[in-house]
Amino acid sequence: MTLADLAAASGISIGTLSQIERELVSPTVRTLFTLGEALGVSAAWLLDPESDEKKADPYVVTADRRQPFLRSEGLKKDLISPASSDRLRGFYMLLEPGYGSGEAPYAHNGEEIGLVMCGVLELEIEGETWILREGDCFAFPSDLPHRFANIGATQCAVFWINADI
């Protein structure tokens, strides 16, 4: 597949794809999901196609075996679901103040559910915004345009699950 083909399939410009390929910019969460869908692979595979995830214990993920899923400035997202979980992807996400998924909402297949463990999370779904604090939960279809950000003064931790349905 050429960059032009991928640009056409994903709606992401050739220039942006080229910058990502040359590691001049880091893709946003939205971009990773969009590219994954266009290529028919998971966003996790895009970050580490040689991952030993399937070689790990099929039922348990210990704290020292968490798989880094996404690392960008102000955002750390670890895959915490074991290899046997094909349709559920659990994430432990840490957001620094002022950081999140980006300005533009994104959508993908599946459903999502989450729990804010600490901090303040702004969650926007289809243009409606909620302010969630420690102990607050959310759930929504992933194909609704959504975005999130830490709008608090301290780090925000979220337990987030994506389900492929």
UniProtKB/TrEMBL annotation:
Is Glycoprotein set as a keyword in this record? no
**Molecular function terms, GO-annotated:** DNA binding; DNA-binding transcription factor activity
Would the keyword DNA-binding be found if you checked this record's keyword annotation?
yes
* Any one Pfam family match given in the protein's UniProt record, by short name: Cupin_2
Q: Which domain of life is it from?
A: Bacteria
What keywords were assigned to this record?
DNA-binding
A GO-annotated cellular component: cytosol
Q: Give start and end of each HTH cro/C1-type domain.
A: 1-46
Q: What is this protein called?
A: HTH cro/C1-type domain-containing protein
